[in-house]
Amino acid sequence: MAKNNDELFKNVISHAKEYGFVFQSSEIYDGLSAVYDYGQLGAELKNNIKTYWWKAMVQMNENIVGIDSAIFMHPKIWKASGHVDGFNDPMIDNKDSKKRYRADQLLEDKISRYEKDGKTDKAEKLQHDMDEALKAEDLPRLKALIEEHEIVCPVSGTRNWTDVRQFNLMFSTQMGAMADGSDEVYLRPETAQGIFVNFLNVQKSGRMKIPFGIAQIGKAFRNEVIARQFIMRMREFEQMEMQFFVRPGTEMEWYKHWKETRLKWHLAVGTNPDKYRFHDHTKLAHYANAAVDIEFEFPFGFKEVEGIHSRTDFDLSQHQEFSGKKMQFFDPEINQNYVPYVIETSIGLDRFFLLTLINSFEEQDLSTADKQDSRSVLHLHPALAPYKAAVLPLTKKDGLPEKAREIMNRLKLDFNMAYDEKDSIGKRYRRQDAIGTPFCITVDHQSLEDNTVTIRHRDSMEQERVAVDELENIIAKLVSWKNILN
Fold first, then answer.
1. Out of 244, 418, 473, 485, which residue is the most buried by the measure of CB atoms under 10 Å away?
2. Sign of CA dihedral 322, 73, 239, 206
3. How many CB atoms lie within 10 A of CB 48?
4. How many domains does the chain have?
């Protein structure tokens, strides 16, 4: 990892805590590994990302509706989905450090190091060998590759490895009054199954016709042994998923459509297109006939942010078999009953949150010949910013706070606003820059005379004088969802 990338990632993590975006969960009790809390600004940014996804997915598509299914579901659902028997990661232990690692992640890290060192031939060869071993579920081969490429434990520095074994990632618990007499249930490891088991309910109650989609945002839980890279891989996380039901035989055109549509969604908020790439799966799940990841170049390398999968009719067919209920749609256009095929789009909300912070974070040197100066700024798209504007009285006297409060009360009905009268105006500007507030509205003595204020723009730091009566329209135009939804 390049030093500047390493420093960037550390600075983003530090910034996230300092300004109330993300905290370590249970921090006063020394924390809970791979579990994080979203602070006051993190919750706002997260909700805005959810709103952006929901509007783009549900509001803008007449044939897509949203649901909110329960986290607890009948245990047979996870048997039908394959999670009870097949939701495993290949794990390997280092005998000296007693630390456990995912075998594929150790190999992926080695591939990244080969790429950074310009050893592309070695990287491609190892990628191919790893993909083949994963596809064949050849655990001894994975261990052999770790040994062949002299991969050491990051903690002990030794190559004293155990055999590779499979480890199921689902959390289980008991439902009922007494643990010994209750049924075992699972915390859902994904949100998709809640959509599949409600397919008929939604289709019939909503009078939906193929093709149509069901969207959902919700928590999922995976007992990740190797949880790392801040909020990139957590045990409790949030997904934004949409399952799109199509007529068999049309799935590849819809797969192509959603692949293109979802990348546009990512780029519309100003993320750098050069940091994105598609990565086609070489190892397809047994039920899929196409799968691709949208990957973003994080400071620690390209990682998946969203997956688009053509899942065929596997999910509905499995639930039809295990439940004994028909999961079919009668298509009047072709006068035929069939189990629909599914195109899935699944994005990790926490990963996109981290992506958004990294993409928008900048430390700017504003020094001049006369003085040293700098600022940390989040160049968040105005529609995503936690606060849309901040109202700042120039001083805490002469009626300026009263005038500022009057403006604040007028604007907060439509926009999430910040109010700050502590410290110098320059320090207050810097704080709003650091949390991504697009505009600062400064109330000064002239405001009392002619009812005008100064708007300062975060990115350019330019200032303009405007009438108070124009503020609502100015802010509304700049933070509108219309700027990114199309």
1. 244
2. positive
3. 21
4. 2
Report the C-alpha gap between 102 and 272 in whole angstroms. Answer: 30
The answer to whether 347 is annotated as binding is yes
- Domain CATH code at residue 414: 3.40.50.800
* Residues 381, 325 within the same domain: no
Q: What is the largest CA-CA distance in the chain?
A: 80
pLDDT digits (tens, 9 = 90+) for 297-323: 999 889 999 999 999 999 999 999 999
Q: What is the pLDDT of residues 107-149, one digit of tens each?
A: 988 998 898 889 999 899 999 999 888 888 889 999 999 999 9
Instruction: Count the neighbouring beta carbons within 10 Å of the beta carbon of residue 191.
Output: 23
Please, which residues bridge with residue 244 across strands?
213, 343
Residue 304 known to bind ligand: yes
Q: Is the peptide bond before 211 cis (omega within 30 degrees of 0)?
A: yes
Asked whether residue 183 is domain-assigned, the answer is yes
Is 260 within any annotated ligand binding site?
Answer: no
Q: Is 228 annotated in some ligand binding site?
A: no
Question: Is there a binding annotation on residue 376?
Answer: no
- Check the annotation: does 32 bind a ligand: no
Does residue 211 sit in the same domain as residue 315? Answer: yes
Which of these, 196, 201, 188, lies nearest to 313 by C-alpha position? 196
Q: 343 is written with which tokens?
A: 């195109």
Whether 143 is covered by a domain: the verdict is no
Instruction: Report whether 260 contacts 278 (CB < 8 A).
Output: no
| 298 in the same domain as 265 | yes
> How far apart are alpha carbons 63 and 71 in whole angstroms?
25
pTM of the model: 0.85
223 marked among binding-site residues: yes
268/344 same-domain check: yes
Q: Are residues 421 and 352 in the same domain?
A: no
349 annotated as ligand-binding: yes
**How far apart are the C-alpha atoms of 87 and 135, rounded to whole Å?**
14
- What does DSSP assign to residue 179? G
Residue 249 annotated in ligand binding: no
Same domain for 406 and 325 = no
